[in-house]
Write a structure and sequence with these properties.
The chain folds into six domains: about 90 residues, MurE/MurF, N-terminal domain (Udp-n-acetylmuramoylalanyl-d-glutamate--2,6- Diaminopimelate Ligase, Chain: A, domain 1), CATH 3.40.1390.10; about 230 residues, Mur-like, catalytic domain (UDP-N-acetylmuramoyl-L-alanine:D-glutamate ligase); about 140 residues, Protein-Tyrosine Phosphatase, Chain A (Alpha-Beta Complex); about 90 residues, Udp-n-acetylmuramoylalanyl-d-glutamate--2,6- Diaminopimelate Ligase, Chain: A, domain 1; about 210 residues, Mur-like, catalytic domain (UDP-N-acetylmuramoyl-L-alanine:D-glutamate ligase); about 140 residues, Protein-Tyrosine Phosphatase, Chain A, CATH 3.90.190. About 35% of the residues lie in helices and about 20% in strands. It contains 31 helices and 47 strands. β8 and β9 form a beta hairpin. α4 packs parallel to α9 and α9 crosses α10. It is elongated and about 105 Å long. The termini are far apart. The relative contact order is 0.05.
Length: about 950
């Protein structure tokens, strides 16, 4: 006991100390008879409150700080200025100062510690030393892994671990030294040989409060190095980092700086970084050395330079350094590739700070041949300030972002996500390419569905971690395993034999056992292993592209007309009609799954309602949804053929342009819930009349089985008339009447969306919709009705609605150089144009209202009069100017003039619309751009944003 007391420095001894103690403990639950209990005032619990419990368990004496907790007692107490410092000194002395028998390299910095520690371990091993590692991923004694609870454990565990290393013959150890460990004195008492500083960027400000306090904590490693009695001490610092020089300022240390250029002593003469790794020629005081490393990413250039400098301080020859660094093939969870045969790259990385995320995405941007996507989140109960910063970084560098949960801990996952998305919206105000999916597995699944050949997907934040912390629960979760499982299921979709059977086809040539990993109807985007269906479309015949599909790696060719030359190396399947065969295959594949499938149809609002339904269903897990408006005889089967075992629900959209379309699509998809939005004038050219449209839409009601449910719009008499056709339960929704789902009060429409109070089966809840236009209240009610039909709670429904985002080109406000463009360009019919005009009128703060319209197509005989009606409606909005293009829009312009809008102009082509607008627009204007799909009016909106500056 005397030797332990001597190690404490300034102290006050009270009571009677024992002659010896059997062990040390700072957790009262771990105390055994004869232990010395160190009562540490912790961050969450004060160890001094547990002194009585420790004594009951047999503690022989107590060390603590502050006032005497046991005044008048006879038990021995030692009062010290800092219980944490005391514990570090006691542990070092109790375990007989193990660091004295080791070469200890300590590594600190915000990012790069783990990779650098792996590189340092390789250097120590190359010197012939048995090695140990203390770090984030795991602790290691030689080759024996030990699970790591913290990057740097508490002093008692750390010194005990070092002692075990010494006993096992370890003589060199790489220690990741966290800022928490430095601030809390966990590494006090360790004699370091080398200290490495990698970098300093924002992190852990929940603990350190300021960046300066964080920097001071990092500097403590070098202060400890300066006090170390080791004879050959070195400081290795990143001179490119603004904080690098301050780490050693005023300290009596030999310093070896590294960086990309002068005045760094260790620096590259040249380097190249790619998917095959890093090649670098490095200048060092020991002479030049060449590094050939399989590590990927320019951020690893700095980690390799740091390791080169450490190798020099250890007295290694350049060639030995090169060989050691080349042996480190990969670091778990650090730009780690996930391979399952997919035609795109998937990378898992631990990047969980702004700087690390920016470095990884910058590297990925350079490596990606196609698009760059990123799945990430921010941890709960941690530095909140970095959340919007990381959101801005992803939006600036990626093409698509999925914001999800990391380790939410005690915080609400959705609240964390919203703080991240606030930063995304600074770059993408409309959040067009950002999805909020709290379920991390579902987010990864959605991202993998999005990826196409040549794309690169980064899954960031958790890296090597095999758990997720939700509330106080530690749940098993591994980004790599989840991605691999989803990819594995997607990569083994079907075989050629199953395609033959499902399509009622005949194999003309080739092997029945060939695996089919997907289906394509476009040879240009076909991925290796996909079946190519030669569809005869409106403009092109897929049979003209069979050779191209075979060359691109199609697993089989599905045709209804045999080609002149049958490819010998690709199976060919002959069917009666490739479009019908595609539907049969989708129906066959759909039959493999039992899960909620919700299908929505109607004249207006289908796509937006489908997006909202998908967001609501996300509470069940990963949702398969139709991309865009994949709602016809080709799009719906292609959507269903992406269905995999990872999905927990499906959201589909059924469109119709001819009689029988809805019935055919419902027969393929067999939904359990059908949602009807509205019946209005759309596709009357093919369906004849409103009665014809109503009859066609009613096909979905007839298709829903008795155990399912139909969701009907009580505000539309034609929709409600379908209730008598239903075998299933009927769920109603209304913005005006009593219904299963209804609005209460008047929705409040603002610049950032709508605030609506819903009553869902008697439960009232207020929700904020990130969508423009009061017509979207009806879409939200329809989606809520679908959620109710599936059996979800009002809480789940409201959360889903708040997560929903508008689809591209569907009533989205886009900023453009001081004015706003209402982009509603995806499609148009009279009802949807009137709804968009209402949304434009709601922009009460606008300087002027301007309407740009392209033809409303597929209206048949009612086309001219429908356009005249729209022209009168435009004039009634109080618009300052009306501009239209297309032959039918001339009727709208004529009617608008007759109604008093003198500034009504018919323009020959969309390019002329843009030219005229650019001359006449002024800051503060609000511009509606709308037209049918065939008019391509998105070109007008995109051109205005590009020319005026959109901030998107």
């Amino acid at each position: 006991m005397d030797t332990l007391v001597e190690a404490l420095g300034r102290k006050t001894v009270l009571g009677r100390l024992p002659a010896a103690v059997t062990g040390l403990a700072y957790d009262s639950r771990a105390v055994t008879k004869g232990d010395l209990f160190v009562a540490v005032p912790g961050l969450r619990r004060d160890g001094r409150l547990y002194i009585p419990e420790a004594l009951e368990r047999g503690a022989a004496a107590v060390v603590t700080e502050g006032e005497d907790p046991l005044a008048g007692a006879t038990v021995g107490r030692i009062l010290v200025p800092s219980a944490r410092e005391a514990m570090a000194r006691l542990a070092d002395r109790f375990f007989d100062h193990p660091s004295g028998a080791l070469t200890v390299v300590g590594i600190t910095g915000t990012n790069g510690k783990t990779t650098t520690s792996y590189l340092v371990e390789a250097l120590l091993r190359d010197k012939g030393l048995r090695t140990g590692v203390v770090g984030t991923i795991q602790y290691r004694i030689g080759d024996e892994p030990i699970p790591a609870g913290q990057t740097t454990p508490e002093a008692l565990e750390l010194q005990g671990l070092l002692a075990r290393m010494v006993a096992a013959g370890v003589r060199g150890v790489a220690v990741e030294v966290s800022s928490h460990a430095l601030a809390l004195h966990r590494v006090d008492g360790i004699d370091f040989d080398v200290a490495v500083f990698t970098n300093l960027t924002q992190d852990h400000l929940d603990f350190h409060s300021t960046l300066e306090a964080y920097r001071q904590a990092k500097r403590r490693l070098f202060e400890l190095l300066a006090r170390s009695p080791k004879p050959d001490r070195w400081a290795v610092i990143n001179l490119d980092d603004p904080a690098g020089a301050s780490m050693v300022e005023g300290l009596p240390l030999r310093t070896l700086p590294f960086g990309l250029g002068p005045p760094a002593t260790v620096r590259p003469r040249e380097y190249a970084s790619g998917l095959d790794g890093i090649r670098m020629a490095v200048r060092t005081p020991s002479g030049p050395l060449d590094v050939v490393s399989p590590l990927i990413g320019e951020h690893n250039v700095m980690n390799l330079l740091a390791a080169c400098a450490v190798g020099v301080t250890l007295g290694m020859e350049p060639r030995a350094i090169s060989e050691a660094l080349a042996s480190v093939a990969a670091v778990p969870g650090r730009f780690e590739r996930v391979e399952a045969g997919q035609p795109f790259l998937v990378v898992v990385d631990y990047a969980h700070t702004p700087d690390a995320l920016e470095r990884v995405l910058t590297t990925a941007r350079k490596l990606a041949r196609g698009r760059l996507g990123v799945v990430f989140g921010c941890g709960g109960d941690r530095d909140r300030g970095k959340r919007p910063i990381m959101g801005r970084i992803t939006a600036r560098l990626a093409d698509q972002v999925w914001v999800t949960s990391d380790n939410p801990r005690s915080e609400d996952p959705l609240a964390i996500i919203k703080e991240v998305v606030a930063g995304v919206s600074d770059v993408w105000p409309g959040l067009e390419r950002c999805a909020m999916i709290p379920d991390r597995r579902a987010a990864i699944g959605a991202a993998l569905e999005w990826a196409r050949p040549g794309d690169l997907l980064i899954i960031a934040g958790k890296g090597h971690e095999t758990y997720q912390i939700v509330d106080s629960h530690v749940l098993p979760f591994d980004d790599r395993a989840v991605a691999r499982a989803i990819l594995g299921s997607a990569m083994s979709l079907l075989t050629v034999q199953e395609v033959v059977r499902a399509t009622h086809g005949a194999l003309v040539g080739g092997d029945l056992g060939v695996p089919v990993t997907g289906v394509s109807i476009d040879s240009r985007s076909l991925a290796v292993g996909e079946a190519f269906f030669a569809i005869r479309g409106y403009r092109l015949d897929g049979h003209a592209f069979l050779k191209d599909a075979a060359t691109r790696g199609a697993s089989c060719l599905v045709v209804h007309a045999l080609p002149d030359e049958i490819p010998l190396h690709v199976p060919v399947i002959l069917v009666d009609d490739t479009t019908r065969a595609l539907g049969r295959l989708a129906a066959f594949h759909r039959g493999r799954f039992s899960l909620p499938i919700v299908a929505v149809t109607g004249s207006n609002g289908k796509t937006t309602t489908k997006e909202m339904i998908a967001a609501i269903l996300a509470s069940l897990g990963p949702v398969l949804k139709a991309e865009g408006s994949f709602n016809n005889q080709w799009g719906l089967p292609l959507t269903l053929l992406r269905l995999g075992p990872e999905h927990r629900a499906v959201a589909l959209e059924l469109g119709a342009s001819r009689r029988g379309d809805i019935a055919a699509l419902a027969q393929i998809s067999r939904p359990g819930v059908g949602v009807l939005t509205t019946v209005s004038s759309a596709h009357t050219e093919f369906l004849g009349s409103l009665d014809g449209i109503q009859a066609e839409k009613a096909s979905l009601v007839r298709a829903i089985p008795s155990e399912g449910a139909v969701v009907l719009n009580a505000d539309d008499p034609r929709v409600m008339a379908m209730a008598v056709l239903s075998r299933a339960r009927v769920v109603t929704y209304s913005a005006r009447e009593a219904a299963d789902v209804r609005t209460v009060g008047t929705p409040d429409e603002g610049a950032d969306g709508l605030v609506v109070t819903l009553e869902i089966h008697g439960v009232r809840a207020k929700t904020r919709l990130s969508l423009a236009g009061s017509h979207n209240v009806g879409n939200a009610l329809a989606a809520a009705g679908a959620g109710l039909a599936v059996g979800l709670s009002a809480t789940d429904i409201v959360r889903g609605l708040e997560m929903a985002r508008p689809a591209k080109g569907r009533c989205v406000w886009r900023p453009a150089g001081g004015l706003r463009i209402l982009d509603d360009t995806y499609n148009a019919n009279p009802a949807s144009v009137l709804a968009a005009l209402g949304t434009l009128q709601a922009a009460r703060d606008a300087h002027r209202l301007i309407v740009v319209l392209g033809d409303m197509l597929e209206l048949g005989a009612i086309g001219p009069e429908a356009h005249r009606m729209i022209g009168r409606a435009v004039a009634a909005t109080g618009a300052a100017e009306f501009m239209a293009t297309g032959p039918l829009s001339a009727f709208a312009v004529e009617a608008a003039r007759e109604a008093g809008l003198a500034e009504s102009h018919h323009v020959p082509a969309w390019e002329d619309v843009v030219t005229r607008l650019l001359k006449r627009l002024a800051p503060g204007d609000a511009v509606l751009v709308k037209g049918s799909r065939g008019m391509g009016m998105e070109r007008v909106a995109d051109a205005l944003v590009a020319r005026l500056g959109g901030g998107e």
